[in-house]
UniProtKB/TrEMBL annotation:
Domain Flavodoxin-like: 55-201
Pfam families, A to Z: Flavodoxin_4
Top-level taxon of the source organism: Bacteria
Protein name, as recorded: Flavodoxin
Signal peptide: none
PANTHER family: EXPORTED PROTEIN-RELATED (PTHR39201), FLAVODOXIN-LIKE DOMAIN-CONTAINING PROTEIN (PTHR39201:SF1)
Coiled-coil annotated spans: none
Length: 207
């Protein structure tokens, strides 16, 4: 009997260590800010895009602007299989195939623990008038119902596309706030940070 109890205690310790390590991995993927009520989730495509080469993806630039304005934590959606950095045609071909299949590409690492966040900003480039499919993978895996959701996007002239409507369909019990979009060619302009600050302030999230 003592051996059984000892074995159970050992197994309990092993499982506890496993879950602790999983929590650490999840936490490590979230870049901490000063505002623990806000999480900024984004997918961004660096390398070649429709405007040329970008060392830092356009949406990541805007996500960083939002982080500066809100102080929120950050989580990047990173596909397990990266999109091409050098061929825009290859990116288009893959994105079109994923769109046509309604695919859900795998994401690196674990999903973030969103339980403590009241507000989640969620952004990406506009592909085919909606979220790229890696974002749809995230949305299927993470329940954001009951939270306040704020969409943001980078585009080539299309504005927000169907993203706000997609959030409403995916999370019918969430509150959707006014989104923000900017053309990719303008993300590095000083006016974009100014506009982000005004938008964030209008929503009541300025730190």
């Amino acid at each position: 009997m003592k051996k059984v109890v000892t074995l159970m205690m050992v197994l309990a310790g092993v499982f506890l260590e496993i879950f602790t390590q999983i929590d650490k991995i999840s936490a490590a993927q979230v870049k901490k800010g000063s505002n623990s009520n806000v999480l900024i989730v984004y997918f961004s495509k660096s390398g070649i895009n429709y405007e040329g080469y970008r060392k830092t993806g356009n949406t990541e630039v805007v996500a960083n602007d939002i982080q500066k304005a809100t102080g929120g934590d950050m989580y990047e959606i990173v596909p397990s299989k990266p999109y091409s950095q050098t061929s825009y045609k290859a990116v288009e071909k893959r994105a079109t195939a994923e769109q046509n299949r309604n695919a859900r590409p795998a994401i690196k690492g674990s999903m973030p623990d969103v339980s403590k966040y009241k507000t989640v900003f969620i952004g990406s480039p506009i592909w085919y008038n909606e979220y790229p499919m890696p974002v749809r993978t995230f949305m299927d895996k993470v329940n954001l119902n009951g939270k306040t959701l704020v969409p943001f996007a980078t585009d080539s002239g299309s504005g927000m596309g169907d993203q706000p409507q997609q959030l409403k369909r995916q999370y019918p019990k969430a509150k959707i706030r006014k989104g923000f979009s900017v053309e990719g060619a303008d993300v590095s302009k000083a006016s974009t940070q100014t506009n982000v600050n005004k938008w964030v302030k209008s929503l009541g999230y300025a730190k």
